[in-house]
């Protein structure tokens, strides 16, 4: 969609028999990465050139399940991000998540990670590596994002709760992943039946050519009695916007956006916040605009836009009405650095050529 136009948004990818969701782009807009289920592998991930017609083939898909496969630990690869230069992909692996149904039409699911370490995939070497300093199994480390120069990573971290004895890994199938989620949820509910707060702090770590380093608390976005997550650098490297909520992560009623100087400084609540859920934000390439999702107008998330001035102050939010559908949630918006009005399609060619069936119908 073009935010400067009243035209309807384009359908880039549709008729998918498998799930495709969280996506990101290189800084120049030339590469796209996206979580994509492949032959029932919930750890599937696509990385491809983002052209007028991007074709997803088997060769463009990797699997986070291949990270330390010999350890036989289920991996979903949550919240992956491409590096600004497109040479690396950062993700949470060996992850476990809590998934609890809620009796609330606006917030019907409580879902957040409770296990995971950060790892990255080297696109050129086609190899996986853990990120030292963000790979401690005593913690859940998730939601890693890159600085504009690719030299620093910010991620959310919390002490990992005790879950259960390790489950038997039976391969990259849907059933094994679902088992991991269910067992993790049951154990979490056993020890946290009244849903006590589960708080994340933001940390930063040098990438250091993949060697990592010591993780440091991000002052102002940690140890504040709240849960802090989804940090995003502005492309000019001047600001960091993050989400803060009373507890947990993902789709939280009380989540609000905060902004702080990237070179450290006190955060402040942004003027653009609505009264119900503010998250999934993305900066424009020129660092002057921020798009985010909110449930201000109904149970389905919709997109809102705000302008950020040179001092980091935001305008009241503007509803992007032409990005809205009456029967769909609009999630995870991403600004992409391509010409306004450029046409793009993503062709799920791998599905036809490999005769993939909808999830649950594969061999």
Q: What does this entry look like structurally?
A:
- It is a single chain.
- Helices cover 6% and strands 36% of the residues.
- It has helices spanning 174-191, 349-353; strands at 20-25, 31-36, 44-49, 53-55, 61-63, 78-82, 88-101, 109-122, 127-130, 139-146, 152-159, 201-206, 216-217, 227-233, 239-245, 256-261, 268-269, 278-283, 289-294, 302-307, 318-319, 345-347.
- It starts with 19 loop residues before the first strand and ends in a 10-residue tail after the last helix.
- The chain has 363 residues and is mainly beta.
Write the layout of secondary structure elements.
Blueprint: E1 20-25, E2 31-36, E3 44-49, E4 53-55, E5 61-63, E6 78-82, E7 88-101, E8 109-122, E9 127-130, E10 139-146, E11 152-159, H1 174-191, E12 201-206, E13 216-217, E14 227-233, E15 239-245, E16 256-261, E17 268-269, E18 278-283, E19 289-294, E20 302-307, E21 318-319, E22 345-347, H2 349-353
Parallel strand pairs: 4-22
Antiparallel strand pairs: 1-2, 2-3, 3-5, 6-7, 7-8, 8-9, 10-11, 11-12, 12-13, 14-15, 15-16, 16-17, 18-19, 19-20, 20-21
Features:
363 residues, mainly beta, 4-stranded antiparallel β-sheet, 22 strands, globular, disordered C terminus
């Amino acid at each position: 969609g073009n935010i400067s136009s009243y035209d309807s948004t384009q359908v880039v990818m549709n008729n998918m028999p498998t799930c495709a969701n969280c996506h990101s782009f290189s800084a120049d807009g030339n590469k796209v990465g996206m979580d994509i289920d492949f032959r029932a592998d919930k750890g599937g991930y696509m990385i491809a050139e983002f052209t007028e017609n991007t074709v997803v083939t088997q060769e463009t898909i990797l699997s986070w399940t291949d990270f330390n496969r010999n350890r036989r630990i289920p991996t979903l690869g949550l919240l992956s991000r491409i590096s600004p230069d497109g040479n690396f992909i950062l993700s949470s692996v060996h992850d476990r998540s809590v998934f609890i149904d809620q009796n609330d039409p606006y917030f019907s699911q409580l879902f957040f990670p409770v296990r995971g370490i950060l790892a990255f995939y080297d696109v050129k070497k086609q190899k996986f590596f853990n990120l030292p300093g963000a790979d401690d199994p005593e913690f859940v480390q998730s939601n890693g994002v890159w600085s504009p120069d690719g030299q620093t990573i910010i991620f959310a971290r919390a002490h990992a709760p005790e879950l259960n004895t390790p489950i038997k890994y039976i391969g990259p199938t849907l059933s094994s992943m679902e088992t991991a989620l269910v067992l993790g949820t049951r154990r979490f509910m056993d020890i946290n039946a009244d849903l006590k707060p589960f708080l994340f702090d933001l940390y930063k770590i040098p990438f250091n050519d993949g060697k990592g380093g010591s993780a440091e608390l991000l002052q102002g976005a940690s140890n504040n009695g709240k849960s802090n997550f989804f940090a995003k650098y502005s492309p000019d490297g001047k600001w960091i916007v993050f989400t803060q909520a009373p507890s947990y992560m993902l789709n939280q009623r009380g989540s609000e956006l905060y902004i702080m100087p990237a070179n450290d400084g006190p955060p402040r609540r942004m003027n653009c916040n609505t009264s119900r859920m503010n998250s999934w934000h993305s900066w424009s390439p020129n660092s002057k605009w921020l798009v985010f999702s909110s449930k201000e107008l109904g149970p389905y998330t919709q997109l809102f836009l705000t302008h950020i001035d040179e001092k980091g102050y935001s305008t009241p939010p503007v509803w992007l009405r032409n990005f809205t559908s009456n029967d769909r949630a609009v999630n995870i918006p991403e600004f992409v650095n391509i010409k306004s009005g450029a046409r793009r399609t993503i062709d799920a060619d791998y599905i036809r050529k490999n005769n993939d069936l909808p999830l649950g119908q594969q061999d």
